[in-house]
Write a structure and sequence with these properties.
This protein is an alpha+beta fold. Helices cover 45% and strands 17% of the residues.
């Protein structure tokens, strides 16, 4: 009867092999499917005879040792690593492409043309500053310049906010994939608990989920003895044997930028203190790349560090050198912050650089029309309604034991500043007076508190005022003065007060109608309605209504002056057009570099994917060959059983006759 067992196991094994081959063929186009391979092993042996040390045995057929997946773990890890890196650079490249599109350099309608048109309008004024047509042309081109600038800025901000949707979708996708892998873990353990069957199809689904998860976030994983995969994401346990650590999002800033965080760990998913790069192996994950490209803060031109000018300090004195060194320290701190949080972000660096350009143009032209000087006083100035006007600078005398605190919102101790140091608070600088006291400069009103009592101790204050000796006149009947071309929304440039001698003083005002401080930044700029409604108010005339050629020449000169450098660490400054060309060129270079990264990573990912297909993919030709082989094996086992059956029947019949 053992011979029948041999045939029966042959039939059963061949049938299982045929079923496995058919399963492979039916899934030849199934995404993530891994080719399955059957392994045979000899069955148990029966004793025939035993003489001394020699034992006679014969086999009882064939068994199925395993039905395993043909998969290379090393290639899988390599594929997921490079796929994660590809997602990181794709997110950044897409952001750069978006920035380039908004400036229209590749569509023919370039932003630079508006700068050129503005220059041409000013140039026309040099022929006749009192020409109503030339002034109207200036207003029209200034309006077009501001409208296009604000449209680009609005588009970049809208894109930045729109990326919130992608961030939220990615967070939900990561959570969904985590839950799927966790559920598959439990299903695999249930199937394989008895050690008889392998949950190959469930493992395929889990590997496919791991492939997709690796695109969104940097993961590391290992498989336990019972078949579960434990996954960590960004060095945080994400999928464990008992639970998954889900992500959520929190809002940051005025525009509600979404920041992913781990719910259970009460911490942000990413720490951007360290720059993401290939050297640190931290350039992984589409979500991280998206957050870096979008940025996690809000910026404007003031966030670009400006290197202190040595000429502004008396470096021949100890005090001057100390002030210069302190200014350089403050600059370096701001530069480090810029390099860490702003420069890596395509959107943030675009907004900050663009705002720098627009602010430079707007400020330069306004300063020509409204030249200013400073006025020092020991008494605060008030407007016609008795409201105290905010000064540009406040100076306090205090000892090192005093505490400087802002008037609002909440007091913050700002005490014990050494000479020439800078602070993160509202204190601008401190200077030793030589009599045991220090003079502190601040950008807003503070309290000097030596005895835990709030007592103002302002030594002096500085206001900016319109320089009447340099300011031009309008050619309207009132000979209006102090009219700027570009205005901040809801903010008048000057508050008019009457001086002690009865003269009108135009005091610089930086507070809008609601009392908040404003600046000449994108999102807050318009062409001055007073000038656009009456071009005669532009102060481009002399006191008696004659052409003021010096003013229009100053305006035209602003376009050729070096006003700023694109790179905060670069000493070389550029004019408006050169700055813009460098600005666009930098993004073109960045886009080119990122495109190369994406192409290289795509090649690597496709290469590893091809290797996986060669190893794990189903070849219909190969499977058909195996099917023929196993079919022949099945037929052979069947014929063998028939022969054995006939032999047994013959023996039984012969014995019956005997």
């Amino acid at each position: 009867m053992g011979s029948l067992m041999v045939g029966a196991t042959g039939l059963r094994s061949s049938q299982t092999a045929l079923n496995t081959t058919a399963h492979n063929l039916s899934n030849v186009n199934t995404e993530g499917y891994t080719r399955q391979q059957i392994t045979f092993a000899d069955s148990t042996y029966a004793n025939v005879f035993s003489k001394s040390l020699n034992k006679g045995k014969y086999g009882l057929g064939v068994d199925i040792d395993a039905i395993s997946r043909v998969r290379n773990e090393f290639i899988d890890r390599s594929y997921r690593t490079e796929s994660s890196r590809l997602g990181f650079y794709e997110s950044q490249a897409n952001a750069v492409y978006e920035v380039e599109d908004w400036f229209g350099e590749m569509q023919g309608v370039t932003y630079q043309q508006h700068i050129t048109n503005l220059y041409n309008a000013v140039n026309e004024l040099t022929k006749n500053p009192t020409s109503t047509i030339a002034r109207s042309s200036l207003i029209q081109n200034a309006t077009a310049f501001i409208d296009r600038s604000e449209a680009i800025y609005s588009g970049l901000k809208d894109y930045q906010v729109t990326l919130n949707t992608e961030v939220n979708n990615m967070v939900e996708k990561i959570n969904s994939l985590g839950q799927k892998i966790y559920n598959l873990n439990k299903g695999i353990v249930k199937v394989e608990a008895e050690g008889v069957e392998r949950a190959n199809d469930l493992r395929d689904s889990r590997d496919l989920a791991l492939d997709e998860l690796s695109k969104y976030i940097d993961i590391d994983y290992y498989e336990t003895k019972d078949g579960e995969v434990i996954v960590s994401a960004e060095n945080v346990p994400f999928i464990t044997k008992n639970d998954i650590a889900k992500m959520s999002v929190r809002e940051e800033g005025t525009y509600g930028l979404l920041i992913p965080q781990w719910e259970g760990y009460q911490q942000d998913v990413y720490n951007f203190d360290k720059q993401a790069n290939n050297a640190n192996d931290t350039d992984k994950g589409k979500l991280k790349g998206l957050l870096i490209a979008r940025g996690v803060i809000e910026v404007n031109y003031t966030d670009i560090p400006v290197m202190p000018e040595r000429a502004d300090y008396d470096l021949t004195t100890e005090q001057g050198m100390a002030e210069y060194n302190s200014a350089m320290d403050a600059y370096q701190q701001k530069q480090d912050y810029y390099n860490k949080y702003i420069e890596p972000s395509a959107i943030l660096s675009a907004i900050a650089g663009f705002d720098k350009l627009v602010n430079g143009i707007v400020t330069a032209m306004n300063d020509v029309l409204c030249p200013e000087t400073t006025m020092d006083t020991t008494k605060e100035l008030t407007d016609a309604d008795g409201n105290i006007l905010k000064a540009e600078k406040y100076v306090y005398n205090a000892s090192t034991h005093d505490v400087l605190r802002p008037a609002e919102p909440a007091p913050r101790a700002l005490s014990h500043f050494a000479a020439g140091t800078y602070s993160h608070g509202n204190v601008v600088a401190g200077k030793e007076n030589g009599d045991g006291t220090y003079s502190y400069e601040a950008s807003e009103k503070l309290y000097v508190d030596a005895n835990q009592e709030e007592t103002e101790n302002i030594d002096s204050m500085t206001y900016k005022i319109l320089d009447m000796s340099k300011a031009g006149y309008g050619m309207d009947d009132d000979e209006t003065r102090g009219v700027e071309l570009f205005k901040r929304k809801g903010t008048d440039r000057y508050k008019q007060i009457t001086g002690a001698d009865g003269s009108t003083i135009y005091v610089r005002n930086n507070l809008n109608v609601t009392g908040f401080e404003t600046d000449y930044t994108l999102g807050n700029l318009i062409v001055n309605p007073e000038a656009s409604q009456n071009v005669g108010t532009l102060p481009l005339s002399t006191e008696h209504g004659k052409e003021d050629f010096s003013k229009v020449n100053e305006l035209i000169d602003t376009f050729s002056k070096k006003f700023a450098s694109l790179n905060p660490e670069n000493y070389a400054k550029a004019d408006f057009n050169t700055f813009y060309n460098d600005y666009i060129g930098e993004f073109a270079t960045m886009g080119s570099v990122l495109t190369k990264y994406v192409n290289n990573q795509t090649t690597m990912v496709n290469g590893y994917d091809n290797q996986r297909l060669q190893t794990s993919g189903v070849s219909s030709d190969e499977e058909l060959q195996k099917m023929i082989k196993y079919q022949h094996a099945y037929n052979a086992a069947s014929r063998y059983i028939n022969v054995v059956s006939e032999m047994i029947e013959h023996l039984v019949t012969s014995l019956g006759h005997a």
